[in-house]
Amino acid sequence: MFPQMRRVIGLTSIRRAVGGAAVAPSGAGNHAHQHHRLIRAAFLSTNSNKFHWISYNGASDENSSRAAARGLQGKMMFSVAATSVVEEVEAKEAVHPKFQPENVVLYQYEACPFCNKVKAFLDYNDIQYKIVEVNPISKKEIKWSDYKKVPILMVDGEQMVDSSDMINKLAQKINPDFRPDSVEEDNEEMKWRGWVDNHLVHILSPNIYRTTSEALESFEYITTLGNFSFTERIIAKYAGAAAMYIVSKKLKKRHNITDERAALYDAAEAWVDALKGRDFLGETRPNLADLAVYGVLRPIRYLKSGRDMVENTRIGDWYARMEKAVGASAGI
Q: Which residue in the list 78, 107, 115, 245 is annotated as catalytic?
């Protein structure tokens, strides 16, 4: 038996790596691209007189009024475009430079829902961070730590663990007025953050490993973007998919799930009901509960389970708004 095969026998140890599943790359682009768009839109807006002069300067007298109207219309369109780009960029939370962490490193599994929850917070607040993808079998990247789970976040030399706790600490670091301990337990935001950790995440594995084909789909992504050697990648894809298919049935029983898809749809509908017609639970912009729900759903969004969820529930519009609000990754 290959040494790697013996290690894969213990594949249940990588459940944190595969508790979620694939997420398609965001279409929002990177920061440089956003910056370029902003500059380009501003240029077209502030220099539109010159631009439209080129457009209609050669028009005949009889067509000059029509050409001028087209030029004015074009100018207005460029101005609106520039404004919309500015609004898109400004939709993300801006951290005061005084409170901006200088050195942030996230030790993660790409498909881990808890890791993605932390990344959603970092991305939304434009906190730059370095990603260290952990090998879920050897975990050599976190041998230095006594804590052997992910995510692990290092912030200016301080180790943070537990996704919800590290988000609380980060939120307080960038906003000293934030006091999570003083929030009442029945607070709407706290209630739904707890719902994410205690209910929503437990529905994911039974869904993404529901069938053998879905399990293989998940492991195709996990092994492609995860930190595996070539041999580990081949073995983990098939042995891991088979193992997690079996484990998911046990998880389904443990969490009293009768129909995994129905449970996922019910959770999505419960979240939409909680919005009460608002764009976000945080009203006009996402709060920590919005970011938590979005973060743990992001790994499954473009898998079959995620596609089914969007097609069969009302969550799609909210998810699209969150994709836009969170924007490009702040990972470097």
A: 115
Q: Mean pLDDT, consecutive 10-residue segments, the chain of 332 residues?
A: 38 44 41 40 35 32 43 43 43 73 95 96 96 94 96 97 96 85 75 97 97 96 90 92 95 96 98 98 96 97 97 98 96 92
- Residue 179, pLDDT score: 76
Q: What is the spatial distance between Cα 297 and Cα 173, in angstroms, rounded to a whole number?
A: 26
Which residue is catalytic, options 78, 109, 124, 280?
Answer: 109
Active-site residue, from 78, 107, 112, 228: 112
Does residue 109 have an active-site annotation? yes
Identify the CA nearest to 219 among candidates 21, 9, 19, 6: 21
* pLDDT at position 23: 41
Residue positions counted in the chain: 332
Cis (ω within 30 of 0) for the bond into 151? yes
Choose the catalytic residue: 78, 107, 114, 280: 114
Catalytic annotation present for 56: no
| Integer-rounded Cα radius of gyration of the chain | 23
Sign of CA dihedral 221, 222, 224, 225: positive
Q: Based on the residue annotation, tell me whether 115 is a catalytic residue of this protein.
A: yes
112 an active-site residue? yes
